[in-house]
Amino acid sequence: MNKTFAIVLIILALALIAYNVTLVDFQDPIQGDSTIALIGIVASLCAIVLMLIFMTSKKIDKKLKK
To answer: Helices marked H in the chain — which ranges?
Structure first.
């Protein structure tokens, strides 16, 4: 997996976060579709963290091979 693909996945996750924030009812965020939107936000944040960890591990691997 190259760096460009990882960045595209991060951008898609950010877009999903932006979309899910629009679905959250801030008056009652635990009821109905707001719960699903909050789960989607957390899942997208997890995907971003995993991609950042992956990119960092690739940088470390590249430095160790030198």
So the answer is: 3-23, 33-65
End-to-end CA distance of the chain: 20
Task: Give 13: exposed, middle or buried? Use CB within 10 Å, 0-12, 13-18, 19+.
Answer: buried
Question: pLDDT by residue for the chain (66 residues), tens digit each?
Answer: 788 999 999 999 999 999 999 999 888 888 888 999 999 999 999 999 999 999 999 999 999 998
How many residues are listed for the chain in this entry?
A: 66
The token duo for 3 is 């760096």
Can you give the pTM of this predicted structure?
0.85
